[in-house]
Amino acid sequence: MLYLASQSPRRRELLTQLGMTFGLLDVDVPEQRQPGEPPEAYVSRVAREKAGAGLLAVVANPHAVVLGADTEVVLDDVVYGKPTDAADAARMLRTLSGRTHRCISSVWLVSAGREAHATCITDVRFEPLTDARIDAYVASGECFGKAGAYAIQGRAAAFVAHLSGSHSGVMGLPLHETARLLRGFGLLD
């Protein structure tokens, strides 16, 4: 049985797109980057910790496979996680405006006897954003709970001048890589 160690509605939606049936696990994993930890290693570690915490919750099921994922926005080696408030969201969007950032998504599948992972890096270029556009976007509330203070599947899609990589990865679950992992575990044809 597959379990998703996430309460993200976007990840649930994306995993459903693959035709998967799965249980949900609510895990609480600190998302703190360690000093000197490279962004890719940080994102992968957090995704693995989420999957591991989920596996502990269903350890009584010997056939459980748990999917953990994490997605972060990175620019100039700075990780832009979820904004703490409106001012933080506006600051992030002003920094990303007119520039290309990386969106790193890592996915881990773990079971009692096996684990596998994949990382997807997508380059996203925002067009230059005016303060008025940033303020209107922040006021919409869509920026909250999203890495980099934006949801590419929402109004912020209009900010994206160019994308090279995985649209679903920016949303929070790279479908190509996830499907490959699921096939490797015999969970998807």
What does this structure look like?
Belongs to the Maf family. YhdE subfamily. Its cofactor is a divalent metal cation. The record marks 10, 71, 153 as: Important for substrate specificity. It is an enzyme of class 3 (hydrolase). One of its GO terms (molecular function) is UTP diphosphatase activity. This protein has six helices and seven strands; from the N terminus they run βαβαββαββαβαα. It has helices spanning 9-17, 39-57, 86-96, 131-140, 167-171, 175-184, and strands at residues 2-4, 23-24, 65-75, 78-80, 100-111, 115-126, 160-164. With 189 residues, the chain is an alpha/beta fold. The two termini are 15 Å apart. α3 crosses α4. The longest helix is centred in the first third of the chain and has 19 residues, at 39-57. The radius of gyration is 17 Å and the shape is elongated. It has one domain: Maf protein, CATH 3.90.950. Helix content is 34%, strand content 25%. Strands 1, 2, 3, 4, 5, 6 and 7 form a seven-stranded mixed sheet that branches.
